[in-house]
Amino acid sequence: MITLHHLENSRSHRILWLLEELELKYEIIEYKRNKLTMLAPKELKDIHPLGKSPVITDQGKTIAESGAIIEYLIEEYDKSKKLKPQEVDGSLQYRYWLHYAEGSLMMPLMMTLLFAKIEASPMPFIVKPIVKGLSKTVSASFITPQRNLHLGFLNNHLSSHKWFCGNDFSAADIQLSFPIESASHFKGFAKDFPALIDFLKRIKERPAYQKAQEVGGELKSFI
Length: 223
Fold this sequence. Notes:
By secondary structure, the protein is α+β, with helices and mostly antiparallel strands. It is 56% helix and 9% strand.
């Protein structure tokens, strides 16, 4: 049986959701974040050397990384091919979005988180204005424009497509859900990216998404 090593409020929500979409039997082992650092607990290193989530174990194999897990589960268990486009153009789009989510989109989002933490961190009074000024300059000149470039790109695509690979829901939508949900907490998101808001409404209406939240807890952003 598939075992999902599930860290609360993390990327592993996507894998739990996919398991529900595929109607697979699985067991879940839950892990809690450190309340001070928000990092994963050291017990996850017993499963995979990097100590990150998601990780699944199945048929004697240990598989990490969201994209790799999704590809494995689709290839191994999506026998009806309902969550991966089969035509050439759709298949190329699917592969692109599946890897774009972590390869390109998450970087500016994580940099937003990092620089926000820097600004909020305690520091000597004398250096505080210097650090904050530098952080705000980098954010305004690079991080925020890059973040909005990607979100605008996604918003424009979904303005003319129901789902990322066209009219049919796919695992690429699951992969992109985490960064989009995280970004939805940014100020002005609803006004600037209405197609992404509509996307989030659609995914949250799916029974498998709702079941994943019941089992694994509500997904909240700390970005």
